[in-house]
């Protein structure tokens, strides 16, 4: 198995790169989806969140009101740290199981673990390669405004709340520049895939 850690700031083109690698045949594991799964009703993580933040973060059906919880922790480092201490270990455990399952099903699989908080959550899976998508702040803000309907102030706050991109770039084995056209992003991703295929062929 070949394990890729894919990370990047919000609206930096990470999903586009993940989708392209999937089209090439990679197994895609999305940390954002796992973060939703680990707080579904009946999970230990949801019980811990309710114990920490109270029942008012639940909807009537017993599911987590992510928007309400987000309002509670956004901009409050202490509250966010408490939430992360519950969610991050649960996601790490589930992702570890899914990566192991992918390897069991296909020992030659290329697995892309798409994880926005790779730096912040200290994700320590044994990656063969760490890929970082990189776009300037202005591009991230524009994409959030145009594609996700945020107003400019909200978009800037979302971008600025994340870890500085310097920390991501410091751990990158490969940086994909997503500031240009979609075709340029795709071509860099295709080159990466071919590089991985050649590396694995050389190892065999």
UniProtKB/TrEMBL annotation:
<keyword id="KW-0963">Cytoplasm</keyword>
<dbReference type="GO" id="GO:0005524">
    <property type="term" value="F:ATP binding"/>
</dbReference>
<keyword id="KW-0547">Nucleotide-binding</keyword>
<protein>
    <recommendedName>
        <fullName>Dephospho-CoA kinase</fullName>
        <ecNumber>2.7.1.24</ecNumber>
    </recommendedName>
</protein>
<feature type="binding site">
    <location>
        <begin position="11"/>
        <end position="16"/>
    </location>
    <ligand>
        <name>ATP</name>
    </ligand>
</feature>
<dbReference type="GO" id="GO:0015937">
    <property type="term" value="P:coenzyme A biosynthetic process"/>
</dbReference>
<dbReference type="GO" id="GO:0005737">
    <property type="term" value="C:cytoplasm"/>
</dbReference>
<comment type="pathway">
    <text>Cofactor biosynthesis; coenzyme A biosynthesis; CoA from (R)-pantothenate: step 5/5.</text>
</comment>
<dbReference type="GO" id="GO:0004140">
    <property type="term" value="F:dephospho-CoA kinase activity"/>
</dbReference>
<keyword id="KW-0418">Kinase</keyword>
<dbReference type="InterPro" id="IPR001977">
    <property type="entry name" value="Depp_CoAkinase"/>
</dbReference>
<keyword id="KW-0808">Transferase</keyword>
<comment type="similarity">
    <text>Belongs to the CoaE family.</text>
</comment>
<dbReference type="Pfam" id="PF01121">
    <property type="entry name" value="CoaE"/>
</dbReference>
<comment type="function">
    <text>Catalyzes the phosphorylation of the 3'-hydroxyl group of dephosphocoenzyme A to form coenzyme A.</text>
</comment>
<dbReference type="InterPro" id="IPR027417">
    <property type="entry name" value="P-loop_NTPase"/>
</dbReference>
<keyword id="KW-0173">Coenzyme A biosynthesis</keyword>
<keyword id="KW-0067">ATP-binding</keyword>
